[in-house]
Amino acid sequence: MRWLRRISLRLKFAALAIAYMAASAALSLLLRQWMAPWLAAVAAIALLLPLLAYHVRRAFAPMNSLFRALSGTVASYRDGDFSFGLSWHGNDELGELVDTHNQLGDALREQRLGLVQRELLLDTMVQNTPVAMLLLEPEGRVVFGNLSARKLLGEGRRLEGHDFQALLELAPASLRDAFARGGDALFAVGTEDDEELYHLARRSFRLNGRRHELLLLRQLTTELRRQEVQTWKKVIRVISHELNNSLAPIASLAHSGAELLRRGQPERLPEALATIEDRARHLESFIRGYARFAKLPSPRAEPHHWPRFIAQLRSQVEFVLEGEEHSSHARFDSAQLEQALLNLLKNAHESGSAPQEVKLALRRLPDAWRIDVLDRGSGMNEAVLSNALLPFYSTKRNGTGLGLALAREIAEAHGGRIALLNREGGGLCVSMVLPD
């Protein structure tokens, strides 16, 4: 059918041209009575040319209107208005163009509607999240602040357009100090009886070619209190378990000793008293371990000679020194680091590793020292690896869960860190990094 429409359109213009030529010829013959033939032909064409232009313009008028409408809708699309549609009654190529254009408008309209809905959802989530969010432009002015940020920094007022430093001047001193330190930070707001703990996260990124900064202020008080309650419950369970394990046999043996005296059999008393003493000493050691963890003092870093420190450590627990022996000095608290490494080396021996496979490696890093305690035991699964450094977490039947936690506390008190990873071929590597 398309080729029939093309022929019809061409025949229409051909008929118009033929009619114009015929009219021109007839008028030329009429004008020859008063002028020369060539002049009559020119005059006939000149006289009929406006009529031809009128008919041609009338024939192309619908198409010109369509093209103007197409241009207008494209401009509307560019401006974000997708509510326009076009109609064309002809069943030809222009009709197909109009249909395709309308389909494009429908697709853009649906996409715009989806974007608007997602933006509304995202805005609702951002505005109602308990995390205070602020977006700062390079000059330090607030581009965006959600409801939580308004409550924290603006007493409920809008923050957009305000200078952030001016807002900080009205904020609590702890918040100002947290921003002054730079980077992420923890800070508390309020009095001692009504204190709220916050975590500050700062991230920079480029938006429209300019550097912006995103600030996130998350309140941690409720979560930390819940974790604190869970931790205390675990502490109470562990202490109760250890106390029962020691006090129950002590009470039983004390009763047995009283019975032996009543029966006149004092010869068996030393054995019962020795067992009571053993359990009492175990309980004393257990309580001392908890007290040492809870009252760990700030480290007193002093220069120490590595060979002398390692020799003193080797006199208390067996291990093999792997790699070269460093003869340099480092600054650390000797008593605390010794306690941490003793815990790690004893854990390595208790892992099922052969004694000769328990090793200690000391390596020099550009601005720190790295101490690795290695064994060839059974290693740890992912669940144990993720929890092993937490206080009171232990997979041992009689473990207190304080050895690795104390080592971590000591490393972090020195400004360092500690990490656990399974070794290829089996075993565990506990890596401690201490800065210079």
UniProtKB/TrEMBL annotation:
Ranges for domain Histidine kinase: 238-436
Domain HAMP stretches: 68-113
On whether Lipid biosynthesis is a keyword of this UniProt record, the answer is no
Compartmental location: Membrane
| A single BP term in Gene Ontology | osmosensory signaling via phosphorelay pathway
One MF annotation (Gene Ontology) recorded for this entry: phosphorelay sensor kinase activity
What protein name is recorded for this chain? Answer: histidine kinase
State the organism of origin.
Answer: Luteimonas cucumeris
